[in-house]
Amino acid sequence: MATDGPTPLERFIRGIIPENPVYRQLLGMCPTLAVTANMKAAMTMSGAVLFVLFCANVITCLIRKLLKPHLRILVFTLTIATFVTIADRFLAAYVYAMSKELGPYVPLIIVNCIIICRCEVCASKQGLGAAAADAVGQSIGFALALASIATVREILGSGSWFGYSLFWMEDTPAESARWAIMGQPPGAFITLGILLGLAMWIGRAWSKRRKRAPA
Amino acid sequence: MKKTFLGQAWLILLLAVCFGGLLAGVQVAWGPKIEANKEDDARSQIPDIVPGARAELTPPAADVEARDPQGGRQAYRVYRAMGPGEPDAVQLGWVVKAKGAGYADTIEVLIGLDLRAERITGLAVLAQNETPGLGSKIAKPKWRGQFAGKSTQRPLEAVKKGQVAADHHIQAVSGATISSESVCKIVNRALADLAGRLRSGRIEDSAKASE
């Protein structure tokens, strides 16, 4: 069984770009839209997802031979919910302001379909190495996707990046430098749409070039 | 064995027990720290709801319990909101932390009161899980600002837009009548339970008595 499917390295690389959870699989749209108004929130969310996905993948992988097919989703959810609760309590204890800002979106990682999808597709079928590499690769892919959206939204919406105001905007009053809608939900949809279109366009251009090359 | 309940569910039961233990450990380790963070957060809101008060001058809160005739208990936390004065800090009002049922989850609020507990000076929402975009608007300054200046003589009432006719009316968030009513109920109950005790200024005595 464990020899089937992609190797750990393949799993790791695929998660970052070729099977990027946001841009290629279109999974986990809720946090992608909700917590990308600034980089700090987006990176905290990515960190929480990395922790939860890694732990859930490892546990699922270790018990994969014991799983009953009709009860597997229940086990996945139970495992994920446990680690999400740990992540949520950790944020509340050590970065309370961020925990308040993310609000319900941390507990909502429980229903983030990226994690259930990885447990189902990879961790419940492959060995420990592949499951762990898959979790890290997918999380990096998720973090990059969130970072790309949050960068656009924070720079345009608040004139800052990671909370530091940008040098060319320092002379302008903060209020006039802001494009308020970027910090709000419509800005999230607009940014995601444009970046998704761009990612598809680049992807197509690449595959076209690859097809042409051997000829 | 395969067909029995345990044969099917043993893994889930085992995992549930292990994970439950893990979470209990997490709660023991981080619970006090989270409570301290919440307390700091509540104190930092005091200047917003009692004008002129400073969080750092306000002494630790007293936990007060009220009992209703049916035997139900309601726990409150009461702060003496202090502001700078000559030579010592002076008390400017009271802040009461109260909670009650909302539409989706428990709502926790801080109620600012003047020294005689006759007027509300402000309201802050510490915790709520109401519907995002509707009920969650109870936490916005625009809505909760309505409470400032209200008399504590009559229970507050949430009414629909356009029906605000009297001083004790609060305009409900449109689409979130239940959330709005819940906040009014929490405030009304806290005032009914505590206003008399606050007026007499003997809140710490009753705190001790309830221990």
Labels describing this entry:
heterodimer; A: 215 residues; mainly alpha; two-stranded antiparallel sheet; 9 helices; B: alpha+beta; five-stranded antiparallel β-sheet
Structure description:
The complex is a heterodimer of chains A (215) and B (211). Chain A has 215 residues and is mostly helical. Chain A has helices spanning 8-16, 29-34, 39-62, 72-94, 96-102, 113-123, 128-158, 174-177, 185-212, and strands at residues 160-161, 164-165. Chain A is flat, with a radius of gyration of 19 Å. The mean pLDDT of chain A is 88. Chain B is of the alpha+beta class and 211 residues long. Chain B has two domains: 1-44; 47-210, no CATH class. Helices cover 38% and strands 25% of the residues of chain B. Chain B has helices at 5-44, 46-49, 141-144, 177-200, 203-210; strands at 62-67, 73-83, 90-101, 106-114, 120-127, 157-159, 169-171. In chain B, a hairpin with a 5-residue loop joins strand 1 and strand 2. Chain B is globular. The mean pLDDT of chain B is 88. The interface between A and B is medium-sized, with 20 and 20 residues.
H/I helix tally of chain B: 5
Mean pLDDT of chain A: 88
Number of strands of chain A: 2
The geometry of chain B reads as globular
What would you say about this model in short?
Helix content of chain A is 67%, strand content 2%. Chain A has 215 residues and is mainly α. Chain B has five helices and seven strands; from the N terminus they run ααβββββαββαα.
Write the layout of secondary structure elements.
The complex is a heterodimer of chains A (215) and B (211).
Chain A: H1 8-16, H2 29-34, H3 39-62, H4 72-94, H5 96-102, H6 113-123, H7 128-158, E1 160-161, E2 164-165, H8 174-177, H9 185-212
Antiparallel strand pairs in A: 1-2
Helix pairs in contact in A: 1-7, 3-4, 3-6, 3-7, 4-5, 4-6, 6-7, 7-9
Chain B: H1 5-44, H2 46-49, E1 62-67, E2 73-83, E3 90-101, E4 106-114, E5 120-127, H3 141-144, E6 157-159, E7 169-171, H4 177-200, H5 203-210
Parallel strand pairs in B: 6-7
Antiparallel strand pairs in B: 1-2, 2-3, 3-4, 4-5
